[in-house]
Amino acid sequence: MPELPEVETVMRGLTPVMLNNKVSKVKLYRKDLRVPFPKNMEGRLAKRSILSLTRRAKYILVNFEGGVVLAIHLGMSGKVTIISSGERYDIQKHDHLVMTLEDGSRIIYNDPRRFGMIFMFDESELETHAAFKHLGPEPLGNKFSAPYLMRALKNKKTSIKQALLDQRVVVGVGNIYACEALYQAKINPEKQASTIKGGKVEELVSVIRDVLARAIKAGGSTLKDYRHADGELGYFQHNFTVYDRKGLACKDCNCNIEKTGGIQRIVQGGRSTFYCPRQQK
User: Fold this and answer.
1) Which residues are catalytically annotated?
2) Would you say residue 140 lies in a domain?
């Protein structure tokens, strides 16, 4: 599943193509994804200038003049491809939406598993819309701080790993980056969230920001069907320290992995967690 760094990368890739452009045509190849496509998308978007592209959690928000916002969620396997004006492109099996812009470029939304979503809303509804009203702060924003996280974890009886995946606590950290951040902060992922206090909370906030910022800078990770908006692959997967490294040596350990078993894998809330029990207490 594309996580926050991948979604941020796609949004940044789309921005120079879509910003200040206008929609000339929208063609749909099916009626819905996880939810139905917006009614009369072409009529509602035609000739409107695109003022900005932003991100909220794992949603790409295309902000049009007149306060109209188009939200794109990539789901499990969604990807967005940019086709330049005049470039030949043959529609693929799982292409569900083609948006043609006034300069002739096209934005293709492809989603084999169809767990993604595309919907529209008014910009005034950003805080009250059903998709957003329950969301916690952005992990890279000013509202995500040590005092905030301390309060959010105070009464949490779940594990710290599961707390970080709770979108009401903080959005978009995701399974991969939660594993990486907890390793960097040397916190056992099974530890009860409410027991993380003081300096450890400060450190956790700092490393979450660091892990996500490095992933965005590197272009996101390349898991399953994920690609950048411009078709290039991301590279952050080469920098994983624990994720998907079961049985391998931990970079901070000099132990005999034949005896210790190296990095361990457990399942929490139906998701794989990778960690080093010797480094993460």
Assistant:
1) 2-3, 58, 271
2) no
